[in-house]
Amino acid sequence: MTDTFETFKPGHPIIARYLDYYYLDIKPDNQLTEFDCFPHHNNTISLYSSHRRASNRDMIYDESAPPFQIFTPVREQVLKVRQLGRVHRIVLVFKVLGIQQFYRDLCFADYIMDFPFFNEQELEFLFNSTDLDDIRELLDQYLLGRYQAYKNDTVERAVQYIFTNYEEFLVEQLANELGISRRHLNRLFKRHFGVSIKKFHRIILLRKLLEMKLFDDPKESFTRLAYALNYADQAHLNKAFKDLTQNSPNQFLRKGTLLGNEDTFWHIIK
């Protein structure tokens, strides 16, 4: 095997409705890879072949270890990842409220490392191939077998509002429009995403700005993007970036690497 990092979309329309993309990460000769990934409204299931997770959160290759499965919730802080030794990883990147369509009775507000999202045979088949079409077909098939439609109209309406209205808003006002209390609305977001509705909104704005800068118009200035997304001014944007990424906008882009064809924009440290 050679070093591989490929992003690829699901094939089945039902899966594509709830899952943004998959990616395959293979580093057969890796000794140490360290990177930072940043706040995001998506959440993921990462499947590691023959790995164990150390107490300091390092992912360590261990030939005798079974596959390691970890769910990562909505990220509100910089996530530092260290991979020691060979890496063979498959990751599923879910849209908002996506994972709830396939798994039930779990708390998706926090990390999950003790649940078999995929069974032993499914993992064996997944890790026996490096062909993206094969992996896509298997993942689509496995998820379809788990599909049970989940709806929460209140959360969906709130999320839709946040995705389509970039200006600052009063949580109490939105809650009134939804016919619930401010406290209940925040409780719903905490239960489903692990963050408050205002934090969720700030994460959405950050990811929208990055999408515009990375994919829509890389030459556009941060000042113009700030106004397009209803930041008060460049200083407001700088503060929001610093709070969420620990970098100014220019530092963030200068340090970053875009991997694959999706929004996997990470700071590769080593």
Order of strands across the main sheet: 5-6-8-3-11-10
- Give the CA-CA distance, first to last residue: 21 Å
CATH class of the largest domain: Mainly Beta
Main sheet?
6 strands, mixed
Number of helical stretches of at least 4 residues:
10
Classify the secondary structure makeup into a structural class: alpha+beta
CATH-defined fold name of the largest domain: Jelly Rolls
Number of domains: 2
Identify low-pLDDT runs: none
Output mean pLDDT. Answer: 93
CATH architecture of the largest domain, by name, is Sandwich
- Based on Cα principal axes, name the global outline: globular
How many β-strand stretches? Answer: 11
Please give the share of residues in helix.
25-40%
How are helices and strands ordered from N to C? EHEEEEEEEEHHHHHHHHHEE
Radius of gyration: 19 Å
Percent of residues in beta strands? 15-25%
Description of the molecule:
The protein has 10 helices and 11 strands. By secondary structure, it is an alpha+beta fold. It folds into 2 domains: 4-149, Jelly Rolls; 153-245, Homeodomain-like (Arc Repressor Mutant, subunit A, Orthogonal Bundle), CATH 1.10.10.60. A 6-stranded mixed beta sheet has the order 5-6-8-3-11-10. A 5-stranded antiparallel beta sheet has the order 1-2-9-4-7. Strand 5 (51-53) and strand 6 form a beta hairpin. The mean pLDDT is 93.
SSE blueprint and pairings:
Layout: E1 4-8, H1 13-18, E2 19-27, E3 32-37, E4 43-48, E5 51-53, E6 59-61, E7 68-72, E8 79-84, E9 87-94, H2 120-127, H3 132-144, H4 153-164, H5 171-178, H6 182-193, H7 197-216, H8 222-228, H9 234-245, H10 249-255, E10 256-259, E11 264-268
